[in-house]
Amino acid sequence: MGQPCLEMVLTALLVVVLATGVAWCGGQALDLEHPVMDHGLDPAKLATYEDWIKPAMAMSEAELLAFVPEWTYVQYCECPNCYGGVEGNGIFTWTIDRPGEMTCRFCGTVYPNERFPETEILAGQNALGETITLPYHKGSQADAPHFLSLHLQLLRRRWLEWQCDTLARAYALTGNEEYARRVALVLDRCATRYPHYPVMQNLPRRIAFRDQKAPWPWDSGRWNFFHNNIPISLLPAYDLTYASPEYEKLSAERGYDVREHIEKDFLKVTCEEIMLRDDHVNNCVGYDVRSAAVLGRIINEPRYVHWAYYWMQRNLTEGFMRDGFWKEGTPAYHAMTVGGLTYAFEAVRGYSDPVGYTDPQDGERYDNLDPDRDFPFWARCKNAPAVLAHPNGMDACIHDTHPYAYRWPKREATVSTICPAMGHASLGRGRGLHQMQAQLHFSGGYGHQHYDNCNLTLWAKGKEMLPDIGYTWTQMRCWTTSAIGHNLVVVDRLDQRSSPSDGNLLAYHPGDLQDPESLDIAVVEADGKLGYRNIPDLDLYQRLLVTVPVSARDAYLVDIFRVRGGKLHDWALHGDADEDTTAVCDLPFGDPVPTMLLPDEEWVEPTQEAHQYPPYGMLRDMRPASVESGFALDFVYSGDGAPRYRLHMLPGGPAELWLGRAPSVRRMGQGSSGDMRKAYDFWMPMMLVRRTGEAPLTSVFVAVHEPHVGTPFVQGAQPLAMEPGDALATAVEVRHGDTVDTIISTADEAPYPVRTTVSGLALRGKLGIVRQVAGQVTAAWLLDGASLTGPGFGLVAETAGFDGELTGSTRQADGQPRDALLTDTPLPSGDALRGQWLLLTLPNGMTQGHEISEVVAQADGQTAIVTAQDHGLRVTAGGVEETYFPLRKLEGRCRFHIAGVASVQQGADGLLRTRATGKLQVTWPGQ
Predict the structure, then answer these.
(1) What is the dihedral of CA 773, 775, 780, 783, to 10 degrees?
(2) Spatial distance between the Cα atoms of 680 and 677, rounded to a whole number of angstroms
């Protein structure tokens, strides 16, 4: 089978089809054996099926058909009495015992009633020119429209759809034609009413008549809305009863071909309408795209299957990044997309076109479709977010991801992981309760994003101590997406911007991937300045994280955030969002302020998810303190033996510490289970360190994060002066027990100046770490540097790193023998660079990371840098093309940098364990 043609001009062709008329025919699938699809019939449930359909069978035919809406329905309806829940989503309960009523599940109010009359009218016309009037009640909350009776229509229709499905299942197992007749009657009635249904926008508090001509916007529809116009819930019932003679009997009664009526005026129309749209690469591929494939198979319309498979392929090839992550960069919408695409693929698996059929649009014929065979990349996509999941199996709350989504198996051990294309790294280590993850986020914004480049989250001691709040459908959404709602630096109190906002990976050293309890360090650094492109003078926004283990159980995190631009920098930190914790700090604080709004900022209490407001208004009871030196702050959990979190904030010039609280949101409930009335029921500690000055202000925030149980293990963290000094260079001394760790970090470039601390340690490079136990050097790490020396020891690298330009690329997906990036720069051959990360700078200045598998010197004089995964690039002398999302085509040369890594660790046995990417000269005490 060939791949579907990606140059199909679908919209133009379908317009021609609709303009010239479709050759409709009823019963065109009579030659097929029905049911065509596997609908999961369970013979053991026959008695249950027949019990469930008793209400439908007890009704007269007229009573049953009255459950088909005459005009339309409304999806979202709030309770005007209590406004409980989330945006009218799943607010009401309904039972067949009282079919004319619905009850608010929050306050118990029964509708309809005289207190809330529907005296307002929304009027419009359908495609037939008929005027339609829709009644509603104007509510007390911002004149909210409450389409109570139309929402009741939806609840009644849902029951009818379920009854049809169950009737069809009972028919398939018993052959009782009375069951099939009821299904045929309902489908026939739907086909009669569908032409009269108007195209409606159907969103919370946004109910409106749309332009009645297809295509229409994503939020609108006739049968359903939101990428879901094809009546998928009724298709199994049609398939299961398709061969019933009741359709012929009903046709004789009606005087027309009932199957033709159902297909021509209902099923096919819904499909043809959505086929006019050209935006089917989205997280809803499991809706209309899948439905079109199912419908095409049931009614023997192969062009629907071809259209659907074409869009399935486009979702895969245009919607996922090279690391397999869905383009929106959120585990929740990744799961939604993968789930939908899985259902879609299953709908076509094994499909073959009718004998002699070749599709007129793509020129292809399908025989025994197998998506796994056709799309090997699919396997990588399925579980891509798993590498970032927390040890308890919960998705990391990245962008719009619902908290408490336990999609993955629990882990006993954790190591570092990264999704380099999406833009998120996790420095991991430890076993059992002592697993730890420090996650750094640096993705772009491609839908459902937050304003959170360089956000930090910390999982340790069984808790998400420094959280990302995640996704909410409540009025708190603006807060949860805002920059100040994350653990990062907010510049000039402004939110970051959305796309383009891609961050850049600047360094990644995952540490020991074989031993989770290793004492090896792990490092990640990222740039996120594109997110703040709304601040003209901001040219530096970088965060460096270094995990430093002190034992098999414990580790601390060094956090260095460099910012240059704007005139106000707020380094923000939030405590646990899942449990009540207390913030403790011994600085003298002033009186609390109610909020941190500016005098010219107006606060209007939000009541809807889409409401915008100044997010600093959510910071409450904030108390100020002047900070001239460093300080320590604790987030304390309740209970004996509970874990604790301690922040060691190092001095960096005059600043203010603000300490208070902010809504933690998560415990309001997730998705449609949320309750907007609980907005201020749950809080988390909130702090920020504020620095101000003339623009462009330069700040280097240096912090040590210490999760622990019982007594803190870090006795102190302090800065060390260096000579020569530099505004962006910093040295930190951390003491624990009889051990002193010194971390030196610079923004220097090769050939690197020598920077020497007052303690006598000298670095030429980006990052150096020295561990001394009882005054004796026991370990040293040099990353991206030429030398790290001190009294009695030294690491001198022959090569600090490797730099060059790419000359080409090869990909197995393009039929070539290996995934490799080509260069004419000499590099160490073989496994010397295995596990190192090549940082590639694209012609537009963006960088991306690629793990190196090996380096091969080719016969043509080129060097092949073999990558551990498909790099997704087609590199030529004149430019580069990405084969995965975002599918950029750029002119110019691609440059690369491979950081040199050198380390020496002295074991308990006295032996030195040395690692280096090139030749390394080591001087060591006693050696």
Answers:
(1) 120
(2) 8
